[in-house]
Structures are given as C-alpha cells and as structure tokens.
Amino acid sequence: MLTSLQKAPQDDRSSDQLQVTVMRAELAALIDRLTGGADGVHPTAVPRLSLARISQMQHPVHAVYDPAFCVLAQGSKRVLLADEVYIYDTSQYLVVAQNLPVSGQVIDASPEAPYLGLKLSFDVKDIAAAALEFRFGEAAPARASSRGIYTGELSTAVLDPVLRLVKLLASPEDVPALAPLIVREILYRLLKSPDGWRLAQMAIVDSHSQRITQAISVLSRRFQEPLRVEALAGEVHMSVSSLHHHFKAVTAMSPLQFQKQLRLQEARRIMISEHVDAATAGHRVGYESQSQFNREYSRFFGSPPARDVKRLRELQLGRVSG
Fold first, then answer.
1. Cβ–Cβ < 8 Å for 262, 219
2. In sequence order, which ranges of 55-113 are alpha helices (DSSP H)?
3. Which of 76, 173, 256, 291 has the most neighbouring CB atoms within 10 Å?
4. Distance CA 8, CA 47 (A)
5. At CA 55, angle to CA 164 and CA 65, rounded to 5?
6. Calpha distance 164→213 (Å, rounded)
C-alpha cells in the first residue's frame, strides 16, 4: 500500500503529460488545417484570436505586444524584452501582462515541421474584472510590480479550453455566444496558475503595478511628444525615483528607453506601409535630429533605415511570390 501511495503522484503527472502531448498534436493539426498550409499570421472569427504558421526560421520581428496569451503546438520561439531573452516551446505558454515593445523570432521551423501557434489578446478591463471577481489580486505580493512577461507550464487545464476555442472556429454561428465564455475560462486558468498574480497585479487598486500600467498607456498614446519624466511621474501619482524603479521592474527598461522603442517601431511601420523616407518618418514620431534618428535606428534594428526597409520589402515580395 505504501508503494502504491508513493507512486500515485508520479503516475498522475505522467498521465497529464501524455494527455498534453495528445491535445497538443490535435491543436497542431487544427492550426495547420485552419491556416490552409499558408505561412503567416491569420486572424480568426474569434475576436483577438490569431493563428500562426511559419515554415522557416525568421529574422527577429519587432512589435508592441498588447496583453496576450501565446501557445505553441509545434516549434519554438525566442522573445526579447530589452536585453532579456525568453524562450518558449510546446511545453510552455507565454503571457504578456502589459503593453510591451518586444522582438520575437521563430527559431524552430521547417517545411516538414512548421511552427504552429496561436495568440489570444486580452482586454485589460476583462483581466481586471476577472481578477477582482475571483479575488486573484489578493495573492499578489503587497504593492508588487514584477516583469510584465513570463512563461508557464502548459497543462491539460489550460489546453482544454484552448482546444475548445479553436474547434469553435468550425461553427462560426456559435462564436458570439460561446467564445466569450471560453476566453473567460482561459483567463481564469491563467490567473489561477502559480504566476497568475503577475497578470492580476494590474487590477490591484492604487498599486505600483496599476500605476505603471497607466504610465505605459500614457507613453503609448503620446510617444511622439518630448518626455518629461517629472510630469509623467506626477500624472500617475508617483515620485520620479519610484517611477523609474517600478517601471524598470515591469518593462526591463526606463521610460525613456521604452519611448525610444515605441518611436523606432512606429517609424519602421510608417516607412514600410506608407512609403515615406527616413527623415519624414523620424520627424513624425518625434525626432528633431535626423542624424540622431538614423543612429538610434541603426543601433536598434541593426542597419540604417533605408537598407533595413529595402530588405523588409524584398522579404515581403518574396513571401507574396511564394
């Protein structure tokens, strides 16, 4: 009897791991079929849910992630926040709890075994409402502010509603009624996980984390304007030193570095989508000096604006031709 009792937890874990493997294989088959075997990011009938299929390793892709939950059914990915690296694969999920400028790179993909994944974005109001209703915010360390990005172990409890959400795409008439319920269940599971307090902390009234969420929102709306840290600190009711400390705890960068990344990513988007030159793009995102813009752009993206945009357009043309 004693031997049986000692083995039970290990047997339960092995059973869960087997179930995860089976469910992940089913999810991979669904994503491959729903994307039609075409590389790219595919929006779906479920609001804020997108599917991704990529059949080769990528150059780093820079983007501002909104609060989101990412799962891989096949392949692996590297995500950079400032100088920090987060690598996740089919055994883990990734949660982005704040609006953060990150760089993502698919590092395990091939035509025979493409990268297959999904991203479910969350409305901040939904996160706060769920955290308050189920009192998950109480589990957060007092006035804590930790990194706004983290990974967690993929379990059957998380995968089950994810599978049901993707399967729901086969019956679009049911999406309006059922998708919000399943998304809420996924959010509940994430908040209940060991690191769920990181997601819940933005719902704690008058906490440092909630104030940093407000600071990020201000910077995201007004990144073209000159940054006065004293004014930003006053706007979110923090001292300058406290703002710097907690902002870096959440984003791994200072407010000025955060603003710089927002500006450079927006300038890159403008040049590619609107076909404007570097001087125009730099001025539109708030740079007064073209030489400073070119210097900071080259340092961040690895090559000068004109060369970088030319390469990206050629990659786009290659994908279209393919």
1. yes
2. none
3. 76
4. 41
5. 60
6. 31
